[in-house]
Structures are given as structure tokens and as C-alpha cells.
Design a protein that fits this description.
The complex is a heterodimer of chains A (about 550) and B (about 200). Chain A is an alpha/beta fold and about 550 residues long. In chain A, about 30% of the residues lie in helices and about 20% in strands. Chain A contains 18 helices and 20 strands. Helix content of chain B is about 30%, strand content about 30%. Chain B contains six helices and nine strands; from the N terminus they run ββββααβββαββααα. The chains are: A alpha/beta (about 550), B alpha+beta (about 200).
Chain lengths: ~550, ~200
């Protein structure tokens, strides 16, 4: 394909790595986020210096007075005054220089010299962009084809995320309500489960909207000779947390309104039960230890010591422990969700947390992440052997929906600590997280800034926009300005999984989307439909009186 | 109707026309024939056709002005005793050339390539001629207007207002487009200088 010159360099831009060019752009191809290049000799070789369009300013506008009558186009007035050119528009376009792509480095090299004034500017060809924007090509091992470049025709320039980057330096999907964040997350999961990735994924699903991913099992797009993905959905009633896996901080988080004395007694009991029973103990062991008092005042028969029960601190603690643990279905003395069942290559586990209280949700996630983290650490350090519960010899990726509930800003919850640990050190032990949130303003800024790949979709709230701007360094101001203008399914992709920030149109899902909004007006209409009315009348009708019963009354 | 002849020019597009005096031509031009904003034709003489101009100013020449002393001859005797003195009084009008109409009818709007010569006849244009001059490619055209507006003369918006008013009568189909121009010019003529 012959390359097309679309403009002429005017001169340097506002900063050292910017330049401007002038273009009539009659076909309106130069959109914000579009890629253009100029040619320059660098170290004796002719290089194509790529840049991204950041701004487009019209230079010729009709005077306001030409628009005095909405029924008269200003072009007619201009024509009457003698301006009869076909195209009157002229634009000054600002471009931020990315540089030329060096495959050996896997990155762009900025020549640090602006283009000469008057030098031609070309629009980057699809093939060139497909090669340099993504680190991986479609279908390659470790690639995730999530969509295509927004400024080009559908599928012309595929956008492939580098799965290796995501699963070592974490991912954040941030979008307002209805912008398509769970859709994008599902597309990413589909890609992770494709034969060229076969990932080990767990999804924390507080709304129960990822179960449609089960369609991947047996789907021809996902299966090859020796592989087909497994989707394991853990329903809310199947979720179990072994009580002995809870830490003291978990108890403190779960038990409401503890006094100083209660905190002291609780800590004392927790450490005592650990000393006495080791790592595996039951709620009964804990209660017995609680009733036993401290070491200086040992109770001889804790089961029947009514005097101790009358101690207001112990009594109140017992009441609180009972109210939290005895009323909950998720805490169990013996049963736990085995890590080897939850995490397995080629398996996507969907942990459905709907119908579970939010504090318990946080605790489930905290204990699970903690167990995963320890298992990976022990396995990597050779402390656990094959066959043990803590043996997990492959990296895992955990996708957390509504992440602001698990790492909120200005508050510490049970999950915050382990999430921060994984985000800062997870790379060493092969534990990565993907955080999905619709309220980045409510998400801890440290947590957000540790996610090195960002998929940002439409966000209108200025507080959320500001949080993104302060936490996400790799996205330029020019792209962030696009945030409120993005449509559903359009995303800014930036960070370590792509070579440069870009605007992407998310590809259609292979499986069905499970998070469709309910159509309330249609359901209300249906209530009055003839079939529905007849069905109600039939169901509510009194049984016909039989002749025999009539006779009996007579 | 012939109203006078070119006697002077101030530039390539700015001419001075002397209005015919009584006795010079059979039909004596009346003041409304050389009123402000009148379209006139300046004959070029050969195949080049004529220039089209707009009257934008009037000057009265009177050598008697400044001679305040008594005259020996009363005005009634002047025609007999010194007829040359009467001819020294003249009405001059300033004309801006705004285009050219070739002999073959081709119209050009803007700064004309050719200039008129001294004594070139100046005639008023008929409504049909004005309409033809303003029709380019089948559409109403006022391509000379931007050049006139570019001049810093405060009288130009008023002149163009008169032009637009005349054209609104001749081009009823383009009334809305002309109304936009009229509004713009009225603002420039009335509001901008006062603001």
C-alpha cells in the first residue's frame, strides 16, 4: 500500500517532545489518539518516528456573524462573498513524539530532535501499527487480543495485551457504571483461557455475573486437541472459610464494638489457642480457651464456670463470637476451599460472593489471598512439597470486581494489607491481581498506582478523573481528557502490557454477557399481557366444587 | 443614462467623475441619478467592456467660495459676460471600481485589471445590468464586498448597506442570505462605532 502524506510540519510544539503540523484533512482521519510519523535519519538509518496526535485545532472558522440565521448555512454566505473552495478547513495538529520502534529493546526510542519545518507527515499504516503498538501479535503465546485501535477500521489494528506483564505487574480496569468494565474483564478472561494462554485465574465476583463464562467449556474457539478450559463456579453456599485460618486482625474486624479490655482478652485467647492446638483448631477450642481465663487465673473447669461467664468482658466477647460465627454459613471448623481445587492452569474459578454480607466477603477474599500468597511463597522457597495443601507450583491471577470494597481509600479493611503485599511483592512469587472498580476515587491510591497496566473506560465523575490522573502515570493528560467522551466499549489502554498508551475498541465477547441490566419497563408490560393475565387468573382460581361435596353439604 | 465623465483618479480603483452640467448633454442628470450607493458603468472604450463602480462620495466645486467681495456682474448677466465662469462650478462624485463586465458579458468582481481613462463616460446601470453583474455561476455573488470592508473607511458599511438593500429587491430568492449580511453590516455601521 502506498503511504499517504497527510500534512506538513509547522514546527516544535509546547514541550521538547512535541511538534505541530498543518493539515487540511478533508477525510477527517486525524483524530485524537491517531498515530502519525515523519522520517528522519538516525545513526545513518532512515527511521519512521512515530507520534500520537494529542490535539487538533481548527485554523479557519466561519465568523460568528455568518451564523446569524440558523436556516442559512455559513458556507452559503461565504460563497456569496466569493469564497467558493470545496474544502475550507485547515487544522493545526499537535503530536507527542513516541520515537522509532526498536524490536531488540521492545520499546520506542525518542530521537530527541523535532522534525524539520516543512517536512512531510504520514499517517501510520495499519500493518506498521499492528507490529509496534502491542508487545505480542495475535495468537502468540502470552497474547490477549482484547480489541482494536479505535481510530481505525474494526480489526484493522489488533490490540494485544502482553499477558506476562499483566500477570507480573498487575492490572486495573477502571470505568464508570455501564461503560463495559465487566465486559472487558470477561474478554480478557476469554483470552487468558484460550489455548495460547491456559491461565490459572480466579474471579472474585460479588454480583454473580461471570457464570456465563462456563460457555467456554467445550466451545470450539477455546479447545484444541489436548486442551479445553475448565470453569469452576463456586456458589455462595459452597464458600467455606476454616475458622483456624483466620488471623487475630480478622477476629477484630469481624467482632463489632470491642472495648480495650475485650481486645486484650481476644488477643490473649487467640495466641493461647494457637499455642495449645497449633494451626488447626475449632470454634469450640477457641471458646473453651476464652472461658479458661488467663494463665495467672486458670479456671479449673472452664465448661461450667458460671462465675467467669458473669465477667462482663468475657460474657460480651462470647456473645459477640457466637453472634458472628454461629449465624454464618461460611465459617467452618474443618472444611476449607482447597487451593489446588481453586487454582489450576487452564481453569477459571468464579467465586460468587453475592448473598454474602460485605464484611464476610472481605474476609473470604482476605483469607483466600493470604493462603494463596503463603502457598506460592512456600512452594517457590521449597518449603512445601507436592501433595501438601500449600503446594501451588504455578503462578495465579486473581481478578477482583468492586475492588474499592477490598482496598478503600482512607480506610483499612482486612483485605488492604494482603492486597498491598501482593501488589508490591507478588511479582517475585507469581501472584498477580486485576482490580476492577467503578469508583477509583474510593480506591486506595497506592493500590491503584501499583497496577502497571491500566484499562480505563468512560469516567465522568471529576473526583474519579483526578484520582486516575494522580495514580496513573503512564497515561498522558491528552488521553485522560478523552475519558468523559469515550463511548461504551471504548477504553484507554496504557502501561506495561502495551508499548504505548492507546485508545481501543473492545472486541465482541465469544461467550454471552451476564451483566445485562434488567428491562423493567418490558417486564411491567409483560405483567398486563394477555397470556400473563390468563396464567394469573388460572393460578389464582378457586377449585371447582364437585357434585359430591355439594351433595354432602345438602 | 450618462451622468458625467471621469476627470481624475486617486488610485487604481478610486475615480472622480464630474457630473454633466446644464447644456453639455440633452438629458441633465438629477441628484437621485448620482446618489450615494448608485451602481455606475465606466466605459473602457474597446473590447474590454466597462468597469462597474459604486458612488460613495460627492464633492461640490465652487471657485466663488472664499471671494466674499461684491461682484460687478449680477448672476443673471454672467451667462453673457463670462460664461466660462459658470463652467467652473461643478458637482464631482467619487466612484469605487468594484469589478468589470467584458464586452462578451463575462463578469469579474474584485479589483479590475484595467483602469478607466480621463473623460471616460460614466453611466448609471439598469436593474437588469446590476442583476447580471451580481450573478456568477447562476448564483448571487458579492465577491467585491470583503475588499471594501477591508478598507478602514467608516462610510463603507453604510455604502454596503445600500448595496444589500438594492440587491434584496433584485434577488428576492436570496432574501435570507442577504438579511444575514444586512444584519452584520448594520451592526458594523450602527453599533460598533458607538460601542
Amino acid at each position: 500500500m502506498e503511504r499517504q502524506c497527510i500534512g506538513t510540519t509547522k514546527g516544535p510544539g509546547e514541550s521538547a517532545h512535541e511538534y505541530t503540523f498543518i493539515t487540511p484533512d478533508p477525510e477527517r482521519r486525524i483524530k485524537t489518539g491517531e498515530f502519525v510519523y515523519y522520517e528522519m535519519k538516525v545513526e545513518g538509518k532512515l527511521r519512521q518516528i512515530l507520534g500520537r496526535v494529542t490535539q487538533r485545532v481548527p485554523l479557519r472558522l466561519y465568523p460568528d456573524t455568518f451564523m446569524a440565521d440558523p436556516g442559512v448555512p455559513p458556507a452559503e454566505i461565504a460563497a456569496m462573498l466569493g469564497f467558493r473552495e470545496q474544502h475550507h478547513e485547515l487544522f493545526e495538529v499537535s503530536v507527542v513524539v513516541m520515537g522509532y520502534y526498536q524490536p531488540e529493546l521492545g520499546d520506542f526510542v525518542n530521537p530527541r530532535v523535532p522534525p524539520e519545518s516543512g517536512s512531510p507527515i504520514y499517517i501510520a499504516e495499519d500493518a506498521l501499527l499492528a507490529q509496534v503498538l502491542s508487545k505480542k501479535q495475535s495468537g502468540e503465546i502470552g497474547s490477549a487480543y482484547i480489541g482494536w485501535l479505535l481510530s481505525r477500521d474494526p480489526a484493522a489494528v489488533p490490540v494485544n495485551l502482553d499477558v506476562r506483564s499483566i500477570t507480573s505487574t498487575h492490572l486495573a480496569i477502571i470505568a464508570g457504571t455501564g461503560a463495559g468494565k465487566s465486559y472487558l474483564a470477561s474478554v480478557l478472561i476469554e483470552e487468558l483461557m484460550k489455548p495460547y494462554n491456559r491461565a490459572c485465574v480466579l474471579i472474585v465476583d460479588p454480583h454473580g455475573e461471570y457464570s456465563t463464562l462456563m460457555e467456554m467449556m467445550g466451545h470450539r474457539e477455546f479447545c484444541v486437541d489436548n486442551y479445553q478450559p475448565e470453569v469452576y463456579v463456586v456458589r455462595p453456599d459452597q464458600i467455606r472459610v476454616r475458622i483456624s485460618s483466620l488471623e487475630l486482625s480478622d477476629f477484630r474486624y469481624l467482632l463489632p464494638n470491642l472495648s480495650e479490655k475485650m481486645h486484650f482478652r481476644l488477643g490473649q485467647t487467640y495466641y493461647a489457642v494457637h499455642r495449645k492446638y497449633g494451626d488447626k483448631w475449632t470454634l469450640g477450642n477457641f471458646m473453651t480457651t476464652l472461658r479458661s481465663g488467663d494463665e495467672e487465673h486458670v479456671v479449673t473447669d472452664p465448661e461450667s464456670d458460671t462465675k467467669l461467664e458473669e465477667d462482663p468482658t468475657i460474657g460480651a466477647l462470647i456473645w459477640r463470637v457466637n453472634s458472628v460465627f454461629k449465624g454464618s454459613k461460611i465459617f467452618d471448623d474443618f472444611e476449607d476451599m482447597p487451593l489446588t481445587r481453586l487454582f489450576r492452569p487452564g481453569q477459571c474459578t468464579v467465586l460468587q460472593l453475592n448473598e454474602i454480607d460485605q464484611r464476610e466477603q472481605q474476609l473470604v477474599v482476605a483469607t483466600l489471598l493470604r493462603r494463596l500468597w503463603r502457598a506460592r511463597m512456600d512452594t517457590e522457597k521449597g518449603r512445601s512439597k507436592e501433595g501438601e495443601n500449600t503446594y501451588l507450583p504455578y503462578p495465579a491471577f486473581v481478578l477482583i470486581e468492586e475492588a474499592h470494597n477490598y482496598a478503600p481509600a482512607n480506610a483499612e479493611v482486612v483485605t488492604t494489607g494482603i492486597l498491598k503485599t501482593i501488589l508490591s511483592e507478588g511479582r517475585k512469587f507469581g501472584v498477580a491481581v486485576g482490580l476492577i472498580s467503578q469508583r477509583p476515587g474510593k480506591l486506595d491510591s497506592d493500590v491503584l498506582s501499583q497496577c502497571m497496566t491500566q484499562c480505563i473506560m468512560r469516567i465522568v465523575n471529576p473526583v474519579d478523573q483526578a484520582r486516575i490522573a494522580e495514580s496513573v502515570e503512564s497515561v498522558g493528560r491528552d488521553l485522560l481528557q478523552e475519558l468523559p467522551a469515550l463511548s461504551k466499549g471504548q477504553a484507554i489502554i496504557a502501561g506495561s502490557a502495551v508499548n504505548t498508551p492507546l485508545l481501543c475498541r473492545v472486541r465482541p465477547r465469544i461467550t454471552h454477557h451476564g451483566a445485562e441490566d434488567p428491562d423493567a419497563p418490558a417486564r411491567w408490560q409483560q405483567f398486563f399481557s394477555q397470556a400473563e393475565t390468563l396464567r394469573r387468573e388460572r393460578d389464582q382460581a378457586l377449585p371447582l366444587e364437585s357434585k359430591r361435596s355439594n351433595r354432602m353439604y345438602k | 443614462m450618462r451622468i458625467g465623465k471621469i476627470v481624475k483618479s486617486n488610485s487604481h480603483v478610486d475615480y472622480v467623475c464630474q457630473i454633466n452640467n446644464p447644456g453639455e448633454f440633452s438629458a441633465l442628470p438629477q441628484p437621485h441619478d448620482y446618489a450615494f450607493g448608485t451602481f455606475v458603468r465606466l466605459e473602457l472604450g474597446d473590447e474590454s467592456g466597462c468597469l462597474v463602480g459604486l458612488i460613495y462620495s460627492t464633492i461640490l466645486m465652487n471657485p466663488e467660495f472664499g471671494s466674499l467681495g461684491p461682484r460687478l456682474s449680477p448672476p443673471s448677466d454672467l451667462e453673457i459676460l463670462s460664461p466660462d465662469y459658470l463652467r467652473e462650478q461643478a458637482t464631482l462624485v467619487s466612484i469605487l471600481a468594484i469589478g468589470q463586465v467584458m464586452r462578451n458579458g463575462e463578469v469579474y468582481q474584485g479589483v479590475p485589471l484595467l483602469a478607466a481613462s480621463v473623460n471616460a463616460a460614466v453611466e448609471t446601470m439598469s436593474p437588469d445590468e446590476i442583476r447580471r453583474f451580481h450573478t456568477l455561476g447562476g448564483r448571487l455573488s458579492l465577491a467585491y464586498m470583503p475588499r471594501l470592508l477591508a478598507e478602514k473607511d467608516a462610510i463603507i458599511p453604510h455604502l454596503l448597506l445600500k448595496v444589500v438593500e438594492q440587491l434584496a429587491v433584485l434577488f428576492p430568492d436570496q432574501k435570507r442570505q442577504l438579511a444575514v449580511l444586512h444584519g452584520n453590516l448594520a451592526w458594523k455601521a450602527a453599533v460598533t462605532p458607538a460601542g
